[in-house]
Write a structure and sequence with these properties.
Length: 48
């Protein structure tokens, strides 16, 4: 199953959906966004 998923990603048929990005300093805002329950894609918190 993992091999098939990797194949689909490599072909561009599966793409991650990133709804929003937050810097680490705003992690609490990212959590609030998730808790609101209206997230369509992934919420990313990055260290830079």
């Amino acid at each position: 199953m993992l091999a098939k998923l990797l194949e689909l990603v490599a072909e561009g048929r599966v793409v991650p959906v990133v709804e929003r990005e937050y810097p680490f300093a705003e992690a609490s805002a990212a959590l609030a966004h998730l808790e609101a329950g209206h997230t369509v894609g992934k919420v990313v918190v990055h260290g830079s």
